[in-house]
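Lecture notes, part 5. Sequence design as translation. It can be helpful to think of inverse folding as translation between two languages: the language of shapes and the language of residues. The source text, in structure tokens, appears below.
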């Protein structure tokens, strides 16, 4: 276990290195921070921190910089989440409240996160496997043509045309709409197939073909839209940190192009808290020089997807964690009200 003083020294090294981009020496630490000890004592503490792998010397006669292990300890024990200011919170709320649909919510969230953190922003669309049906609307377009509109609790809207095998009257359509919603409204998407499997039997023989066609289209929609989707923005921000990436930024950019990699980085949506993966904690080798800060978002206190940022390990962790958490909270509120 590190002593309280050495933890203070480590915190000061991380703060200075993140702020100045320069390796930190003992003299600078004692001048900038009220550590209450001499430079010689700070040098001894820095030597001990280096021996234990929390800081490293990038080259001879330089100061020290934090390692992945040092950042990890800083995030776990030393860094509080920096709260957003009143004007920042109002700006987030005003920017997101103007969204007209789910795609717009996701696009605005990506832009906002990239601007707030000056990192790469990644936002996962709400997963249908964790969503519930809000309403199914059926509209008659012609005697044998129906539009099916599926609305989720996360504001997602899917529309499909159904060509019926025979004309389907307004009264039958209203009956199907009522019966369908009584079974599936408020229920998980994963439960829908079993809930509707015997529904055709509730209708007259001549209408069962159309009812089956509508249900088949509904279930196909669930399968089609089950694929996880995400949106990414702010990649150009990485060019500001090119010196933070050894040799080249190319492996990072290549990893960011792979959606499967990004989905794994964000992690399981069922874990709603702020998660920080630092450097080599990221399984993809191209992202070993980055950190990923992510959090779940959703309505009703349950996470349905994740959002987060990717940037260099030399990151303002308290500020980034605060921004990511605040944006997720507002996105959840918008989905709940949509």
């Amino acid at each position: 276990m590190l002593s309280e003083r050495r933890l203070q020294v480590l915190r000061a090294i991380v703060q200075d290195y993140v702020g100045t981009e320069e390796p930190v020496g003992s003299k600078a630490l004692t001048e900038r921070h009220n550590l209450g000890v001499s430079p010689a004592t700070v040098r001894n503490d820095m030597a001990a921190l280096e021996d234990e792998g929390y800081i490293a010397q990038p080259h001879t006669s330089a100061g020290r910089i934090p390692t992945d292990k040092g950042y990890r300890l800083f995030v776990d024990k030393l860094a509080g989440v920096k709260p957003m200011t009143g004007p920042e919170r109002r700006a987030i709320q005003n920017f997101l409240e103007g969204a007209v649909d789910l795609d717009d919510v996701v696009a605005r969230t990506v832009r906002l996160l990239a601007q707030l953190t000056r990192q790469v922003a990644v936002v996962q669309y709400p997963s249908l496997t964790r969503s519930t049906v809000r309403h199914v609307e059926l509209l008659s377009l012609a005697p044998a043509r129906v539009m099916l509109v599926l609305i989720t609790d996360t504001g997602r809207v899917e529309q499909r045309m159904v060509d019926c095998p025979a004309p389907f009257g307004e009264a039958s359509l209203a009956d199907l709409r009522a019966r369908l919603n009584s079974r599936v409204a408020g229920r998980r998407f994963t439960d829908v197939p079993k809930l509707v499997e015997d529904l055709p039997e509730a209708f007259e023989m001549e209408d069962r073909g159309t009812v089956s066609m509508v249900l088949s289209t509904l279930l196909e929609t669930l399968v089609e839209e089950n694929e996880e989707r995400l949106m990414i923005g702010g990649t150009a921000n990485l060019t500001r940190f090119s010196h933070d990436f050894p040799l080249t930024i190319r492996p990072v950019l290549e990893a960011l192009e792979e959606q499967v990699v990004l989905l794994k980085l964000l992690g399981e949506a069922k874990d709603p808290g702020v998660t920080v993966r630092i450097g080599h904690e990221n399984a993809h080798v191209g992202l070993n020089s980055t950190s990923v800060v992510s959090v779940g978002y959703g309505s009703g206190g349950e996470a349905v997807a994740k959002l987060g940022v990717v940037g260099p390990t030399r990151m303002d962790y308290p500020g980034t964690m605060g921004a990511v958490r605040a944006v997720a909270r507002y996105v959840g509120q918008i989905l709940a009200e949509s």
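The translated text above is only one of many valid answers, since several sequences can fold into similar shapes. The mean pLDDT is 87.
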